[in-house]
Amino acid sequence: MKRAITLKSPKPTSARNRDPDNPPWSEAMLGPPVVRRGRGPQKAPVKVSTTIRIDADVLEYFRASGPGYQTRMNEVLRTAKEKAVAAKAGRGSRSRY
Questions:
Q1: Which secondary structure element, helix H or strand E, spans residue 72, and what is its range?
Q2: Of 78, 80, 89, whose CA–CA distance to 45 is shortest?
Q3: Which of 23, 36, 49, 62 could join 69 via S-S bond, C-beta 3.0 to 4.6 A?
Q4: C-alpha closest to that of 47 among 82, 26, 78, 25
């Protein structure tokens, strides 16, 4: 017959309960619960989580430059987009006459 193993609970007179610098907390010390809210809406522009396939050598180049490589990739893409929009606007604004 096997003996049951029982774990002893800590004695109320243990060292942690006798420590004057560590008194037990009462309900009055804890106070009422405080509801904490999340961060709230992000200021514009709001970023979107997506999945994209990138060539291995391009990804390795940005990763090798250290932490923040995704931010740097975003900056490069934004610059390319702005150049393309400016070039498109420049072509469309000329008058033929």
A1: helix 69-92
A2: 78
A3: 62
A4: 78
The C-alpha R_g of the chain, in whole angstroms, comes to 31
The DSSP string of 12-61 is TTSHHHH-TTSPPPPHHHH-S--------PPPSSPP--------HHHHHH
pLDDT digit string, tens, across residues 19-39: 778 777 888 888 888 888 888
Q: Running DSSP on this structure, what letter comes out for residue 6?
A: -
Residue among 84, 90, 82, 54 at smallest CA distance from 70: 54
* Amino acid symbol at 81: K
Tell me the residue type at 36.
R
Tell which wins on pLDDT, 94 or 80: 80
pLDDT at 11: 60
The answer to whether 72 and 65 have CB atoms below 8 angstroms apart is yes
At 51-79, the pLDDT tens digits run 999 999 999 999 999 999 999 999 999 99
